[in-house]
Amino acid sequence: MNTQEIIEFLGGATAISLTVGYLGQKAIDGYVSGRIEAYNSELQRIASEHSIRFQKLHSERAEVIKEFYARLATLDETLHSTLRGFQAVGEHPLTEKVGRLAEQFNSLREYFLPRRIFFDEKLCTLIDQTLDISKGIFFDITTYPVDPSADEYRYNREVLKERHEFWEKARAAHAKQFAELKIALETQFRGLLGIEA
């Protein structure tokens, strides 16, 4: 073999090697691109599922907040109506209002307990405190007979005075502690719902 043939042979082998190398590189690039595209597609699918789950959870949480707050506002209004110092003519009797208070408190508590999981610990603590204050108010106003014209008070002014003290304590708890907790809950709920306070 002469030099010319060797150079032609090596040139052809080199060209073939370069061509095979180039095609191999293209095949590897195509394979890697396909895998990257498949991974990106899978990531988009997972992100979409996560987004849908998050939206559903947010929607459920919003419904829980809406229902809980509606029950809390109803309880607050009944507390206000019951604890007013002056009961207007034609209003429901105090005993009936206190009965509604018991029902509304129990309804609020029973609604919240199985739905605690929708709220963080800080918010659960605020709700627990609100329920405790409400229960304390209820116990204060039911320690003695609710109706101030009951026979028990007619002949024992000391008991009537004690009843009055319990009711004043309940009024103060509603006006201060309950009201502050309700405002704190409203702020937290607005934050969870994305509403600027």
Give a brief outline of the structure:
This protein has 197 residues and is mainly α.
Describe this structure in words.
With 197 residues, this protein is mostly helical. It has 5 helices and no strands. α1 packs antiparallel against α5 (157-193), α2 packs antiparallel against α3 (121-142) and α3 packs antiparallel against α5. The protein is rod-shaped, with a radius of gyration of 37 Å. The termini are far apart. 13% of the residues are buried. The mean pLDDT is 85.
What is the rounded Rg? 37 Å
Number of helices: 5
Quaternary structure classification: single chain
SS-derived structural category:
mainly alpha
Mean pLDDT, to the nearest integer, reads: 85
User: What is the succession of H and E elements?
Assistant: HHHHH
Distance between the termini: 92 Å
User: Globular, elongated, flat, extended or rod-shaped: what is the shape?
Assistant: rod-shaped
Largest sheet descriptor:
none
Helix content: over 70%
Low-confidence stretches: none
In total, how many beta strands?
0
Residue fraction in strands: under 5%
